[in-house]
Write a structure and sequence with these properties.
It is built from 13 helices and five strands. The protein has a five-stranded parallel sheet with strand order 3-2-1-4-5. The radius of gyration is 17 Å and the shape is globular. The two termini are about 30 Å apart. Bound molecules: S-adenosylmethionine. S-adenosylmethionine (SAM) binds next to helix 1 and helix 3.
């Protein structure tokens, strides 16, 4: 069932990881039996999540392409995941050939496979860092070398914030990343929700979160909308808010384009 190569040294494959389960749901091969079992459990109890994974990846690609269309030449892709078909640097360079991209993930397997894939590309790097420590990301010497924070940049937070528990203040974290950006920059967020899912699907995801390397926090729309004072005023202050619904990206026609 697994076509995955030997795991890089230091990578724990005894329990599912977010990056590998997501890879499995997307049809990738960089995953191992615990990830595959978790993926199958998700497919059985929350079958729409497979589609959601594809829709999310499609959203990520479309946002990257749109940002490149705005002329953005610097990207910090946080919680970037295992390399998959058409990575961020490939997408944006079709529009801005000189674009520079930093991939950030806390999973050492992402670092190993991502770095191997990028090889000696001088303008795209992967760093191992926990997004809950923004200083580790923003002050990382390689990040400071590649990203000019006096110029517009984009921070991409695709499908990663639902691994950040409330105790570690996701609002505050987003503010930290936002505050590091120059005027004209962008911050993109996609987030899994437990809404409109049957209770057994939510329960299964929460149980998986407890056994996996990362817990899952399925915030509902209330987190974004009922707390507008926090979300819209504090979080996105100084930024134009472009609301792009995932539903739109679940549309098969748009998915093909994505
Ligand atoms: C579901 S994948 C999303 C991959 C990609 N961003 C996308 O949307 O296609 C979530 C990724 O976030 C990473 N992640 C989870 N918690 C993290 C943290 N605290 N710091 C950095 N990366 C994290 C996981 O290792 C995983 O690769």
């Amino acid at each position: 069932m697994t076509g995955a190569p030997e795991p890089p040294p230091g990578v724990d494959i005894s329990r599912p990881s977010a990056a590998r389960v997501y890879d499995y749901l997307l049809g990738g091969t960089d995953n191992y039996p615990p990830d595959q079992m978790a993926g199958e459990m998700i497919k059985a109890r929350a079958p729409e999540l497979s589609d959601s994974a594809h829709a999310n990846r499609s959203y990520h690609r479309r946002v990257a392409r749109w940002l490149a269309g705005q002329g953005i030449a610097q990207y910090i892709d946080i919680g970037s995941g295992l390399p998959t078909a058409t990575n961020t640097h490939e997408i944006v360079r079709r529009v801005v050939p000189s674009a520079r991209v930093v991939y950030v993930d806390h999973d050492p397997q992402v670092l190993a496979l991502g770095s191997a894939l990028l090889g000696s590309d001088p303008d795209a790097i992967v760093i191992l860092a926990d997004m809950r420590q923004p200083g580790d990301v923003l002050q990382h010497p390689q990040v400071r070398e590649l990203i000019d924070f006096s110029q517009p940049a984009a921070v991409l937070l695709s499908s990663v914030l639902h691994f950040i528990p409330d105790e570690t203040d996701p609002y505050g974290l987003i503010r930290r990343y936002r505050d590091a950006l120059a005027p004209g920059s962008y911050l993109s967020v996609s987030h899994m929700t437990g809404e409109n899912k049957p209770p057994q699907a939510v329960a299964a995801l929460q149980a998986l979160g407890q056994s996996a390397a990362e817990g899952a926090f399925l915030r509902g729309m209330w987190w974004w909308i009922i707390e507008p004072v926090v979300v819209l005023i504090v979080l996105f202050v100084g930024l134009y808010l472009l609301v792009i619904g995932l539903d739109e990206f679940a549309n098969p026609r748009l998915r093909q384009q994505g």
